[in-house]
Design a protein that fits this description.
The chain is of the alpha+beta class. It has two domains: about 1-30; about 30-504, Cytochrome p450, CATH 1.10.630. The protein has 19 helices and twelve strands. It has helices spanning about 1-25, 45-50, 50-60, 80-90, 100-110, 125-130, 135-160, 165-185, 190-195, 195-205, 215-245, 250-260, 270-300, 300-315, 325-330, 335-345, 425-440, 480-490, 495-504, and strands at about 65-70, 75-80, 95-100, 165, 350-355, 360-365, 365-370, 375, 440-445, 450-455, 460, 475-480. The strands form four sheets. It has a five-stranded mixed beta sheet with strand order 1-2-8-5-3.
Amino acid sequence: MELLALILIVFTLSITILAFRRRSDRSTKLPPGSFGWPVVGETIQFLFGKPEKFVGDRMKKYSSDIFKTKILGEKTAVICGPNAHKFLFTNEHKYFIAFRPHPMQYLFRSYQTKAVAAPLAPRDDTKVLRQPGFLKPEALIRFLDKMDSITQQQLQAHWEGKDVVKAYPLAKTLTLTLACRFFLGMDKPDRIARLVQYFDDITVGMHSIMLNIPGTIFYRANKAAAAIRMELLSVIKEKKDAMASGDKMQDILSHMLVIADPSGKFMPEAEIADKMMGLLVAGYSTVATTITFLMKYVGLNPDVYQNIRAEQMEIAASKNPGELLEWEDMQKMKYSWNAICETMRMVPPLQGTFREVLTEFSYAGYTVPKGWKVYWTVSTTNMNPEYFRDPQKFDPSRYDESEAPAPYTYVPFGGGPRTCPGKEYARLAILAFVHNVVKYYKWEVMDPHEKVNGDMMPTPEKAKTTTKTIFTTATATQFAHKKVVKKIESKRTDFDRSDLLREI
């Protein structure tokens, strides 16, 4: 009798709780949209279609402000447009905290043994960059001459004397060389070059289905991460030995080796290796992508090329032979930077990022529950004619002060407290490349219509083939370098840039 009474009580309570939850669900107005298939949700459509199409189609179907979906195992609200950008950037730490998809957590946090068993607590892995100020202008000034000289060396090694060149492989090797030199203090090109494929695999695997079996994207990424991690542990040992012998170090890795937490405990080597791998990936893929597509769009627009070259040759004319770029030179590259900005608008090097919802909030008349994820993307504004006139046209002049984009419509580096800390590093690295490439080369794009693969990190379609060919393969005519140098030497004080252009 007592057992029957207990069963009836439990049954009644269960019905009451379920009814209450249903009433609560009805009172909570969730964003419109669909969670898709069981378990996988809409992950396949998100990853293997073009992300901007995924978002654009659902904005038209459900709402231009917000819609729900389920991607990478998470219930997600996608917020759209400049108002969404403003809302997100101004409410960091109030409603949102950084979130990295589980594949990314797995790849970059191997030192946390429970990474697979349970979700990891959100944390800011860029803190190591923000605190010591490694990426502030005053710190980057000391590295600028290295950026310039490394760029010159890479162009000479890969393009010198060739009629047909491949821009994407050079962009990847160059940016990885710069990242290794800046973050690790490592200057061994051969050692770096053999890591390029590993970084490619990780870049794709960061946003993939976590299926760790041979032949899958995530399996390749996991193997690549293990190989890079082993290499980094070797670099860490070498760095420690060098520091013990009295060598002075000014790179980020050295800082991570000597910094201690408030209790006096140093960071374990495994954690340092994972963090350094994350920084290298961040400093590699986005910069290489931007350089690659910059070569495409400048090659397709001769007037843009001429404007960039005129600006850069004026800077070159003001310098003595062999003199490297300085901070003041970079501030004069306004049109060149506009062309880079336009490249990032046309093909964003990173489509978007995720946040985790700290507390339930309302947006555009809908409620987003605590624990959901929020995804924001630049694709909701970049190609919208409401914000950019003639958006399909490559037009660097749209960034002139008189025509600057409206606030929160152009946000390639994010915004608010989580603005990309590497923004200035990326700007200098790409401008150093632009300065050198237009001084000595003019190119034609051989396949203007090559497709762009639509993953989170856009790459030209042929970059996926076994030959690693790339659509920005160009006919590169090396300018008469010796004549240029001779002309500068003979007319240092009254250098006539028009004479130089005629001679070329």
